[in-house]
Amino acid sequence: MARRALLTGWLFLLPAVVAYCLFVLYPLLTAVQYSFYKWNGIGASTWVGLYNYLQIFTDPTLLAPIGNALVLIIYFTIIPVVSGLILATLIRNMRQNAFSSAARTILFLPQIVPLVAAGIAWSWMYAQTGTINSILNTVGLGFLSRSWLADFGTALPAVGLIGSWVLTGLCTVLLLTGMGKIDPSLYEAARIDGAGWFRMFGAVTLPGVRQEIVVLVTITIISALSSFDIIYTTTKGGPGTTTLVPGISIFRLAFVQGQVGLASALGIVLLILVLAVVLPVQRIARERD
Amino acid sequence: MVTSKSEVLVGRIILIVVLVLTLLPLLGMLSAALQSPDRLPTGLAWPTNPHWENFVTAFTVGHVWVLLGSSLLIVVVVVPVSLLFATLAGYALGNLRVRGGRVVLVAMVLGLTIPFEAIIIPLYYQITSYGLLNTQWAIILPLIGLYMPFGVFWMRAHFIGVPRELSEAARVDGAGVLQEFRRIQIPLARPALSALGILLFLWTWNQFLLPLVLVDDPDKRTMAGALGAFQGQYIDALPLLFAAALIVMLPTIIIYVIFQRQFIGALLQGAVKG
User: Fold this and answer.
1) Any idea where the domains of chain B sit in the sequence?
2) What is the ipTM of this complex?
3) SS3 category, A238
4) CB–CB of A213/A133 below 8 Å?
5) SS3 for A55?
């Protein structure tokens, strides 16, 4: 009987396990294997040991994408979470009416739009004759106008802000639900103690949404480090290497420049980078519980 | 909370500014999409004679009917199959608590953090060796596998919440595992399933990297994937590109506006569980 139950259970697991092994685990192990070879994708491959990894950490054009991905965390994680906290507090303090629910719907919209379409929309925002420059001209700040995505100084912040645009709504709405679960008597008690708005935010609101903040930090960091769609549709990594991210480098190395081994190694480095940033966040969250 | 009138006003103004900033890129794109397709579009202004026909041109030139068909085919296979596999496995892990299931669970949790870019190269050669490159199957099969960590995790969380007494009661009544699963567990799982279905639909529809690498022909891609190909073709006719981008967004936006509560709910739960 116990054996039959075990068999039934594994039969239930089988389809998912097979699909996962075939299209996630097997490619992952193959990627590790590729990463030890020099291979152009067509001809013979030669074993090079850890040479590809050595190259990633010594070649500035391969280190640049990793650095840029880390900088993107400012725009994909810090800006959306901080603005999310501010906006959620504002919406919560507002009477529930048509305006506040419309605000929620609109703020969430960027989360629904395909990132490719977001990239195209924003490439027009930043274009020489585009939306931002035309607004600058109208208000008499025309001297500031430039081609934002082609300028070495502004390209990375410009693509980063697209990430902020996409993720702020998600952060706001999730934090809003988190704040809804805070016991109102906590605010009451804080007010009786004479706490001002700022103290109340620090002593009641922030601890109340800690779980939500951990979740948001985790998923936004993953999307910063593995960003691809937005960069591909706006700058493709340029000008120079200013907006190059690991995803774009992997794509180019493997499918344009025929350096499959090196590209695979970069993919593994990206995976390790994600784990190295995400696991400590999870651990900190668990320790404090 | 007691707040003064001026605080409320400042709050409102900040919120309105943010809402305008949220809509601005989309409105800017709409204004450019309505300009003459032969010239470089300029600035943010409602064109004096809007070229609504750009949308018709983009629709025909971009084979949007074919694309919709292709995207639908992909969604119609990927979403139900993923839901089925994830539900079966989630049930085994959450309710049956199969011996050895922990290993599967840990492997799946690790899978949650794998960026698609890390495995796209081997996938390319794998799909080529199956002879499936440039077919919709090149997108469908890997996506089912890639959705397993999240899907299984999600359904397991649901089945853990279902009281075990329910299964025991069903067994006493003489129902087998399969019968209990079909008659009792599936109907109970409907909210979890529909939320997961919404997420998988959205992710599939908006998927870009897989079609870009695995399918050359834009007509066989997802909507988002095809849009990537348009970008290269329409470089000299930006208004048409913008019209195409708006057309690609439209189906998801319509569904979002109709089912917004379910959408927001699903995405939020998705964030918490993922």
Assistant:
1) 5-57, 61-273
2) 0.88
3) coil
4) no
5) helix
Interface of A with B in 152-191 (CB under 8 A): 165, 168-170, 173-174, 177, 187, 191
SS3 at position B99: coil
User: What is the fold of B61-273?
Assistant: MetI-like fold (1.10.3720)
3-state helix, strand, coil split of chain A in percent (to 5) is: 75, 0, 25
Helix (H) or strand (E) holding A47: strand A46-47
Instruction: Kindly tell me the sign of the dihedral angle through the C-alpha atoms of A154, A158, A160, A164.
Output: positive
- CB contact (8 A) between residue A173 and residue B22: no
pLDDT of residue B175: 74
Q: What angle do CA A65, A69, A73 make, to 5 degrees?
A: 165
Q: Tell me the per-residue pLDDT of B221-262, one tens digit each, with 9 for 90 and over.
A: 888 888 888 887 777 788 889 999 999 888 888 888 887 777
Structural domain boundaries of chain A? 48-288
What predicted TM-score, i.e. pTM, was given to this entire model?
0.89
Reading phi first (left if > 0) and then psi (alpha if -120 to 50, else beta), residue A207 is in alpha
Give the class (CATH, top level) of A48-288.
mainly alpha
Tell me which chain B residues have a C-beta less than 8 angstroms from the C-beta of A20: 107-108, 111, 145, 148-149
